[in-house]
Amino acid sequence: MSTAEVTDTRFSLSQADIPSAWFNVAPHLSSPLDPPLHPATREPVGPADLAPLFAEELIGQEMSADPWIDIPGEVLDVLRLWRPTPLVRARRLEAALGTTARIYFKDESVSPAGSHKPNSAVPQAFYNAREGIKRLATETGAGQWGTALSFACAQYDLECAVYMVRRSFEQKPYRKVIMETWGGTVVPSPIDDPDNAGSLGAAISDAVRDAVGRDDTHYALGSVLNHVLLHQTVIGLEAQQQLAMAGETRPDVVIAPCGGGSNLGGIALPFLPDPAVRLLAAEPASCPTLTQGTYEYDFGDTAGLTPMMNMYTLGADFMPPGIHAGGLRYHGDSPIVSKLVHEGRMEAVAHRQRAVFEANVLFARVEGKLPAPEAGHGIASVIAEAKDATAKGEDRVILFNYCGHGLLDLAAYQEYLAGDLAEEP
Ligand SMILES: Cc1ncc(COP(=O)(O)O)c(C=O)c1O
């Protein structure tokens, strides 16, 4: 092929184009979010109730109605280590599918931790350090969030205590090594029940207990909360600029996997004001929060220590099967994502584990990148959308979030390739 015939597949912004403010979706919602309720009194919580757990600035962001919130320079300095991330046109996937659709993905796997999670870990660590906190306690499922927070804490000289869902702790031993390399400490959760495979809800309880028990410690949550989705909007804001570079007016559909909703919110929320853009959440069939849960107030953790939130939930004591997509094994969901699904503004689909790995292996073979099991839920949806567009003869523009690589999930790939991967319930 001569140079003149080369077609761009990678759309990169300069480091100066990194967004300088986060997009707050609150003013764009059909009505204000229902307030979180105190776990004991069931009255709406105020900033004072949250102060033992979170930095003041983060509590302000959680409740803010400002349309834009400036990103501090000290945060941008760290985000610039890997941001802006590339937008890639998946032409080889398009060719493999023989589709009429145009498929783009935002590559969040290039961050230090290998996923989108540092986008929120960095500001959370920064605001806590600025307010004099010395240590953060958190939960992690697949290990991606714990890895991201360990990295972020290292940037601002904070200690980091990570409670990792026992099942993932055993499935992904190298995650612990990365977290320890960045100075974090990692223990399997539930800490008081060694025979229990664990859940994100139980790990949250362990981390909250740790944080309320020490004056020098705050809690950090890697998803679900409004401020976490806010921090992740750098993904969608960059993608908007990059799609324009690629000559696209808008995506027809934006797709992302959904555990607690942070990477989905990050890529999708900046597109919410455009009613022509469909938004699609992809979740596991074995933890079908949005597709089979109920929309009601529930606790964020198993012990009932967190405020209650109005969200889709499978029940705070739901114990998901040990699928490899550890980051998607959460009983609840972001109140923002839940509201959008409840009102029909966002769609949700569920995928089974083997279909997810089938999609991941196809993606790896044609695009070269080895997706995290979580990311595969989005890819399975992308393939379904592309096939649907082809059947209807549409040149649908599909944007999806490649939220993480699977280079520490090789045991899962080994099982799949050997034909041993459980199809889970
Ligand atoms: C790679 C990856 N993708 C997705 C998720 C799901 O979380 P969220 O829905 O908050 O993006 C996780 C959570 O750990 C993850 O590690």
TrEMBL record:
Pathway terms, separated by semicolons: Amino-acid biosynthesis; L-tryptophan biosynthesis; L-tryptophan from chorismate: step 5/5
Keyword Acetylation attached: no
Top-level EC class as recorded in UniProt: lyase
N6-(pyridoxal phosphate)lysine carried by residues: K117
Keyword terms, alphabetized: Amino-acid biosynthesis, Aromatic amino acid biosynthesis, Lyase, Pyridoxal phosphate, Tryptophan biosynthesis
Reaction catalysed by this enzyme: (1S,2R)-1-C-(indol-3-yl)glycerol 3-phosphate + L-serine = D-glyceraldehyde 3-phosphate + L-tryptophan + H2O
Keyword Phosphoprotein: no
Family matches, as HAMAP family: Trp_synth_beta
Role: The beta subunit is responsible for the synthesis of L-tryptophan from indole and L-serine.
Protein name: Tryptophan synthase beta chain
